[in-house]
Amino acid sequence: MSLDLWGKAEHPEETHANTGRTCKLHTELPTDPAEAQTSDLFAGPDPSLAYRPECHEKDKTEFRNFENGDLFDRVFNTYKLMHTHQTLDFVKQKHQVWSNCSHFSLSMMDSIDSLDELVDESDPDVDFPNSFHAFQTAEGIRREHPDKDWFQLVGLIHDVGKVMALYSEPQWAVVGDTYPVGCKFQNSIVFRNSTFEGNPDGKNPALNTEFGIYEPQCGLDKVLMSWGHDEYLYRVMKFNKCTIPEEGLYMIRFHSFYPWHSNGDYMHLCNEKDQQMLPWVKEFNKFDLYTKSTELPDVERLKPYYQSLIDKYCPGVLQW
């Protein structure tokens, strides 16, 4: 499936008509691909910085502020713990613990509801429950991509893997930006110069080359990422045979991999498939980041529509 962001969907999804609701979160994307090519929509080192909702309270430069702010200490401490303890061996252990999806049974909507109990301690932009961010992201995508219902659903569920934090995992093993383990830590990783000194992998010469334990262009599917909600939800989707297309699965699996999709690092590990999927992950990132707002959605009003998407792509009670 090629990246067709302005044309007709290539999957036979239902096209949902404009509901007439007022959206305060987004401006219009270009409707003409030629116009899009000449716009600065994807300009800059972080493509998400080129996307700013029309009525947003923040300027674009205020998002992902890892230098100061009211939440700085909480965010820094979360990353400090992550970057100290997330070693190659730790990640392998977490795959063994969580990838068999044998911990609990829960429907997708109930999993989303459970995020009412979670405030992401790695996020410098918001201090409200993660469930609201789920609906904000989904509605942003629905506005700009009304013909791609699977894309809208990905917006809704992309953070649901954070339920691990409600089942004994510390947040530093659940939330935050992800990065490969088993090779050199790149400078684009958040707090790279101030939080890795306690990580024993940093003292292992075999793990501190550009490729480390990996082969050139091996593909991200063969790369072990720092453990978190991205990889976990991807595993849940595959285990339960959910029918979200591959583009959506890439969004789920790599949306927190900012050193890759927003800074261009780790391309030496990517294969042709990863390169083809990268524009989809970048497109998702705009909505994941810039739909965050203190204006919270009417979740109960939206639930019936999104339940219909859940029933289509990941129905029933899932194994987690």
Automatic annotation (TrEMBL):
Its EC number is 1.13.99.1. Its cofactor is Fe cation. Keywords: Cytoplasm, Iron, Metal-binding, Oxidoreductase. Pathway: Polyol metabolism; myo-inositol degradation into D-glucuronate; D-glucuronate from myo-inositol: step 1/1. It comes from Danio rerio (Zebrafish). Pfam families: MIOX (PF05153). Substrate binds at residues 64, 120-122, 162, 176-177, 255-256. GO terms for biological process: inositol catabolic process. Binds 2 iron ions per subunit. One of its GO terms (cellular component) is cytoplasm. It catalyses: myo-inositol + O2 = D-glucuronate + H2O + H(+). GO terms for molecular function: inositol oxygenase activity; iron ion binding. It is an enzyme of class 1 (oxidoreductase). InterPro entries: Inositol_oxygenase (IPR007828). Residues 1-25 are annotated as: Disordered. Fe cation binds at residues 133, 158-159, 229, 255, 288. This is Inositol oxygenase. Residues 7-16 have a biased composition (Basic and acidic residues). It is found in: Cytoplasm. Belongs to the myo-inositol oxygenase family. Its main location: cytoplasm.
